[in-house]
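Input (structure):
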């Protein structure tokens, strides 16, 4: 860092409430800066002696060479070890502080993903790497983290997920903790347009039939039916409370902090209560909700493998995507489906419009009447309210391309 020339004032050892401290002043007017360093003594002679130690590093403090924690490391009366040696903050030290800060700031699943992403970083660059030596080259360089994860078989989508969490961490150590002198900037991998992976009607029926024919507890069939009919995220079935016919989830328990208010019929209410009762049998686990979702996820993955579905990655979340495609076809309304799905950004909902009508017709034969009725509508009815952009005739404008 280039050293600047400052107009200095006298460095005074001043007395306040019986204690002495060192006042470092530089600059004038709007450029005036002042920093006080406690000397932790009431003895003037001791204060003068300690003040000389501060004098030795005063110019470097003015020029921003040392961070606050490094000043404490250099002045023995300010650190527990009583030493005058700068101790580098390691990547592991910074991550520990960051995860402690984040634990009450984000959802458990997000915090867990933070841990996974930062563990990948640590295992690649080293847990003891000084945080100040971390740079963009460690991440996107020729031999950086991105190439390392690719060599291990990680997908670009998965790598980008880790990079987003790492980016939040590097912003934290720059903006909040000010441990590094400048931000670490790196780019995500270009992914192109990613289509959602969903269960079509045939696949859903095959899953139900497989459960019936292979002696699997029908409880799982009911669970999958619930997800297919509600479009809830996997954990949301356990996060709310049933009030009459309405299932309510408070905003703090939802991904986008948007409260859920969903009407459930008698069948879906019975399944909901059954799943929550099943959760209560797992209260001895570290996190009962996570344990239940894990059991459901493992069951659907095992079923998908047994049925030999190929060409797309199908998970418990795929029921949510299937629900959204059906709803957007039936309602023709971006805003209605956005509200039902709990999306905070309409662009997220619009991605379901990327599936052409013929594909939706092939995958969901039960939607035939809705699709054909829309095609047979008079044009003025198809156009609807163009300003709102909720009818299928306006899909091309919404997506920025023509719709099929």
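Output (sequence):
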């Amino acid at each position: 860092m280039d050293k600047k020339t400052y107009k200095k004032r006298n460095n005074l050892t001043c007395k306040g409430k019986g204690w002495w401290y060192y006042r470092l002043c530089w600059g004038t007017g709007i450029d005036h800066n002042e920093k006080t360093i406690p000397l932790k003594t009431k003895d003037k002679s001791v204060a003068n002696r300690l003040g000389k130690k501060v004098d030795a590093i005063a110019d470097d403090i003015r020029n921003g060479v040392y961070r606050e924690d490094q000043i404490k490391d250099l002045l023995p009366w300010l650190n527990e070890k009583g030493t005058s040696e700068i101790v580098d903050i390691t990547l592991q030290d910074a991550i520990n502080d960051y995860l402690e800060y984040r634990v009450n700031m984000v959802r458990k699943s997000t915090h867990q993903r933070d841990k996974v992403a930062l563990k990948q970083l640590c295992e690649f660059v080293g847990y003891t790497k000084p945080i100040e030596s971390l740079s963009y080259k460690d991440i996107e360089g020729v031999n950086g983290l991105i190439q390392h994860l690719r060599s291990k078989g990680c997908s670009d989508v998965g790598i980008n997920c880790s990079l987003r969490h790492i980016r939040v961490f590097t912003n934290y150590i720059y903006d909040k903790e000010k441990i590094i002198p400048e931000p670490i900037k790196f780019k995500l991998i270009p992914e192109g347009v990613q289509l959602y992976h969903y269960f079509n009607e045939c696949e859903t029926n095959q899953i139900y039939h497989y459960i019936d024919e292979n002696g699997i507890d029908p409880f799982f069939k009911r669970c999958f039916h619930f997800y297919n009919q509600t479009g809830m995220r996997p954990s949301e079935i356990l996060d709310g409370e049933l009030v009459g016919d309405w299932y309510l989830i408070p905003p703090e328990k939802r991904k986008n902090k948007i409260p859920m208010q969903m009407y459930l019929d008698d069948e879906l209410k019975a399944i909901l209560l059954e799943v929550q009762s099943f959760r209560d049998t797992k209260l001895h686990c570290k996190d009962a909700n996570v344990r239940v979702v894990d059991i459901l996820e493992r069951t659907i993955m095992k079923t998908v493998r047994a049925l030999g579905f190929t060409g797309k990655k199908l998970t418990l979340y795929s029921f949510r995507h299937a629900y959204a495609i059906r709803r957007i076809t039936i309602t023709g309304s971006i805003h209605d489906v956005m509200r039902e799905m709990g999306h905070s950004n309409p662009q997220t909902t619009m991605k379901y419009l990327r599936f052409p009508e013929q594909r939706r017709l092939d995958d969901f034969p039960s939607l035939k009447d809705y699709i054909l009725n829309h095609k047979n509508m008079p044009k003025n009815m198809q156009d609807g309210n163009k300003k709102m952009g909720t009818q299928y005739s306006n899909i091309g404008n919404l997506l920025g391309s023509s719709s099929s």
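Notes: The longest strand covers residues 19-26. The chain is about 50% helix and 5% strand.
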